[in-house]
């Protein structure tokens, strides 16, 4: 059964609520579930995700992301405004979500708790939408609960969510507990539930989390139950993580939705590290599970393999 | 005897003063005393307060808070704007208090003095009230006197109180001395009196404190005397703390009001960790003491017990 | 001889200059000297100054401050805006000075150089004055020269003084050299002169200092000479410090004015730690010396003693 | 073959897009490639680049930079607004790029991660352009990915790029991974590709990098491939570095363009450390390669040598 | 030969340029050279420069500065706005330069890199000028290249220079390399040239430096050559430093101008530590050299000596 269609958040004009509803319908493709294609890794992981190992050579070019998003049935494609400004006009049919903060992964270790600050202002984003005419459906922002810089990010998140809603835009929070105070616990199911509840309190429409693991480090979709409950009406989607086999991915995704009660997925590397035809087919398979509510076998038949 | 009805704070328009008076009357239910249901723990304690141990399974869902607040005779229900935006329209009869700052409890220990910053701006809050039509009666903000970040929080608190009053809203300060410089003294009666006096100087209408303890760590309502005196016309309410037996809670509350001269209570976990019927009944018992000025036995008759 | 009446500071409108002149006349009661009753200790010292030891029981209630200020011939009563908002309307005849920054004394020691930031904005203060109709004559702000946070406070002080003058308000600077870099020198006469000169450069109308001491820690009014000279047209007043006998206080005050050439006093604890009748009488005695230019014996006759 | 002419970034008015196109055409001199003369070293390296060793005596005077830029076929000359305000009117035909942030090289070593903040506001820049009538074609800003201060600089960069585009100005990012977390890796080809991809996500039109080196520290234009691919439609130009022989410079430049697929060069010291005639001739040789698409021998014939 | 009259900086309105020209003419007294009387030491050095040792007793009173500035042929007198607000109206003929940032010297040593922040805003300064009608010709600001806080000060400096020029005001930068990263090199001629070049890039009209010394710590006017060249059209003036004999001062000044090619001097202590008649005569001698282009012997005849 698909999640029911939510009402627009309170506290915005009727016109904004109408726009929010339309955006929600658009990104969930009428299913109540979201397939978000995440494409913010060129900052978050620099070029690590785009070359080497099993990464398809197509992925060296940023336009690869747009080609996939345009050809595949994604709910929305999330990336930074700069890339959108450069490629959006050539791919005008894609629903875009602007990732408003990003940081590199160069600063790490116990002495460098993560800090990721808002890039463009909401006024700049509003101008961008007005002048570009692109189909911008929402904004994304990453918070790191437990980071020494937590307070700064929670404030930015709360304000941009309120502003996004006032513009009729959706707000997606990437919620990753991290930092010296979090240590090894970042995939703990209970802490993950804390993160989704926090995102709900901030007003997020969707919260993207890393799927929780048990004390042996094993993922099990049933571990998601606490997080989905804690999020309440804020819908939970799992990050896809590093590339895995397409079939394993689909199985895990099916479990997250049907055993974990999540409302879709937000995946990046697993999509764009494949060649264009493979990536598009892979997106179709994800779409089958998330939006068409198919089973894994049916979805897997949509996959194509490189020669 | 009930505390007398206070005048609106000076320095605001006649219209704002009228609105402030109406809000004050509303939250004190004509009694001069406040029963504030505190529901900001999904950020402050993440999911720790909502699952496990004796916590009722109802509490895993954030809507539980709203169901209680709607069915029970609370003076106001305090929570973050994000949750309010998501559930408020379905519970339009509840008087809401927007908790404007919150932090997680992940950062602790001597190297992490608490810092909790304002989330939404007052302009965003005003828009929210305007467009939602919800019954927002005031704002809440936590200060941590003694934290290395004290100055930042005192400034935010002073400014938002002035702005809240200008909008005709009540201002409630959560005042918790904490940080390396405070150490073990956080429940000291004299320091608690310092905190209530500070809240009065900031302009708070109500100040929520943890009930003070003597040097053996024992709570005694008579220890509240200094804090209530120091607060002057700012009304003191005690936090409820972790769950305890309903009867013990009511006795302690009665003592705080009649021996400690506090003006009500602000309780969260003790309410929402119970099942819906128990929680509502418990609220009725609290209401009996705080608002109806009943004795403990009369109030306790309103309690219901789970099977 | 009384100090001559100063001109309004340059750089403000004729109307603001007129208001400044009226405020100056008001607080100096036509004498050119200021008797400032300081009542910001509920934040600065939390509840330490208000209970225990020889402190009169009246002082546990913040209204005690207003009762004294209303019944006694003080030049102005300085306190935080929050208290003023709560009690001001009941004591409308008092000339008030709004202390705009305050901090607690919980953070101390070499690792915690003092930081005290502005609470309300000047726009909020202007609204407060407009709507309350209270007799707000000026603002106060504490600087800590030598603190690691000095730069932040000097900037805030300079800006609020300019804004205060533009509104026709007086500006009083509390100047206390403090912090690890100052160490034991905080009462050094030469450093004190540095502080009064600094206040003059910031544009203060009055500067409140702790009376300097010689290398044995002894106060002598003649040690004030350098500081009064360095302040130029900015008038110097000494803080009263912890409670002492009323007669000693009056003698010291007389010396500060006649041997030290200061322009009055700014005292708090010495006033409000007494019972209401004693405190009012004590204020009359201070007024006799500061404003009426009487000698110590004449002034001392005005004192009353508790039973 | 020259790179194709790019479209203006999305999200700006048609008039701004037209101005952006004209500026792009102007700085690439119709070739799609950029020869940027970098003149921000008076801050970045203080006077180290301008005197001593083989530096021509002409270079001691800042006007030397303007004399070269005016006489030589540069695409644009980048310098700080202060110098431009002083010399621009005498050299009105030069296309200028305003370098908006700069820092000295005095703070270095592991305890001093680089921080370079925006100097003038965009409103000040817009006024400058309006009143001066100078041919300001764009702005420049340096980011240091991996610096502890990275977040602050990424935010400033993203905002000023959006503002620059809204004014029809080009945006050039100097992208230099640096800081304790980067250590010895700053010339690593893979990290360099991370930096160009990051600049693309910020929305830069051009990104200036230090040419990457292999593990032996050797430059090879083929190492640029990853960075140029990662940058996508953002054009990559290499910094010229410290002075080398003119012939070696031209060979390296030719390789960067034809083997590395870069879109020009951004050079400073190699130009201005020469005497006026040599510098102008050297610029003509660079222009021959970058804009006229000549080979090294043809370009080298344009060089002149000091007596 | 006198330096030629410079054009107004580009990027301001014709009216502002006209005002800038008039101010430039005024402070250089038609000579192209500047005699700036520096009077910001009451903050920078607290009371150290004003009492004790050979300091004339006149100097204990801040008005001494204004009496000298009014009676002596100074190009402008630089001091903080607060003093100006208090004394300016009584000395309306003096051309004033408002020193916009200042700090005390209490924080020193390797752990306390200097930080000096802007006091009044430019809007406050503009109001001050408008309402006071005083002859404010420009602003001053100190930067400390090499301080850990360098970035903050460079940004403030760049912005206030742009704003000053937009108001038709001159901008003078005090440029003092300092901090742990600078250490003993603060008087190094090459680093001094870096500082003057930096000031030029910020857009300063004049830059005040400490005269450079050779490796033995000896001042020689010829060491100024690099700094004067690096400053380009920004005029260099040397700080006067601690008091020395008037004749030695004049000789050194003559050398700085004629051998060092500086454009005047900025001196404070050497002037105001003398008695009123001596100070005025000393200023006349300085004026003779700086403005009248006299030799040392002629200038020295203007000196008077205390009894």
Automatic annotation (TrEMBL), chains A, B, C, D, E:
Keyword Plastid: no
Keyword presence, Iron-sulfur: no
EC number of this enzyme: 4.1.2.13
Superkingdom per UniProt: Bacteria
Alphabetized InterPro entries for the sequence: Aldolase_TIM, DeoC/FbaB/LacD_aldolase, DeoC/FbaB_aldolase, FbaB-like
First-tier enzyme category under EC: lyase
Gene Ontology MF term list: fructose-bisphosphate aldolase activity
Catalytic residues identified in the record: 176 (proton donor), 208 (schiff-base intermediate with dihydroxyacetone-p)
Stored SMART domains: DeoC
Keywords: Lyase, Schiff base
Gene Ontology process terms (BP): glycolytic process
Family the entry assigns: Belongs to the DeoC/FbaB aldolase family. FbaB subfamily.
Protein name, UniProt field: fructose-bisphosphate aldolase
């Amino acid at each position: 059964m698909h999640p029911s269609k939510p009402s627009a958040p309170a506290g915005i004009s009727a016109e904004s609520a109408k726009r929010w509803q339309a955006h929600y319908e658009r990104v969930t493709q009428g299913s109540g579930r979201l397939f978000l294609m995440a494409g913010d890794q060129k900052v978050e992981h620099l070029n690590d995700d785009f070359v080497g190992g099993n990464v398809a050579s197509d992925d060296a070019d940023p336009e690869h992301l747009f080609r996939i998003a345009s050809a595949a049935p994604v709910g929305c494609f999330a990336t930074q405004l700069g890339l959108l400004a450069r490629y959006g006009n050539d791919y005008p049919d894609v629903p875009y979500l602007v990732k408003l903060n990003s940081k590199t992964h160069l600063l790490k270790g116990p002495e460098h708790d993560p800090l990721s600050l808002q890039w463009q202002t909401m006024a700049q984003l509003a101008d961008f939408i007005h002048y570009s005419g692109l189909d911008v459906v929402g904004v994304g922002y990453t918070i790191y609960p437990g980071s020494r810089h937590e307070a700064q990010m929670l404030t930015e998140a709360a304000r941009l969510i309120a502003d996004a809603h006032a513009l009729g835009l959706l707000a997606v929070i990437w919620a990753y507990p991290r930092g010296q105070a979090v240590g090894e616990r970042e995939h703990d199911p209970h802490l993950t539930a804390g993160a989704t509840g926090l995102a709900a309190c901030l007003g997020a429409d969707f919260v993207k989390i890393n799927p929780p693991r048990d004390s042996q480090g094993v993922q099990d979709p049933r571990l998601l139950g606490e997080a989905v409950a804690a999020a309440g009406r804020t819908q939970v989607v799992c990050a896809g993580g590093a590339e895995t086999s397409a079939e394993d991915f689909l199985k895990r995704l099916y479990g997250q939705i049907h055993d974990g009660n999540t409302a879709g997925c937000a995946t990046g590397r697993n999509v764009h590290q494949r060649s264009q035809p493979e990536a598009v087919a892979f997106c179709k398979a994800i779409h089958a599970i998330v939006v068409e509510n198919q089973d894994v076998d049916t979805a897997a038949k949509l996959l194509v393999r490189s020669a």
